[in-house]
Amino acid sequence: MSVTLNEVKAVISICRTLADTIKELGEVPSGHLYARVSDILSLANYHSAIGFLEKAGLIEVRDNMLLVWKGGN
User: Fold this and answer.
1) How far is it, in rounded angstroms, from Cα 65 to Cα 59?
2) Buried b or exposed e, range 19-36, using 16+ CB within 10 angstroms
3) What residue ranges in the chain does DSSP mark as E strands?
4) Global pTM value
């Protein structure tokens, strides 16, 4: 199964939008953020994007599912 350039661009756009939102807020409960994007993003894809941002060191996911911005300005 191959991935198209448009699919890659969509994933990057989603991650960027989520990162920008978390950065702007400083911290946000994960459930609150997902509620805002649930009409356009499946829960599985949301968790994948959040996992990517966490592995990249841009956010921290605390035990209470609070997303906290860690990346640079």
Assistant:
1) 11
2) beebeeeeebebeebbee
3) 27-29, 59-61, 66-69
4) 0.90
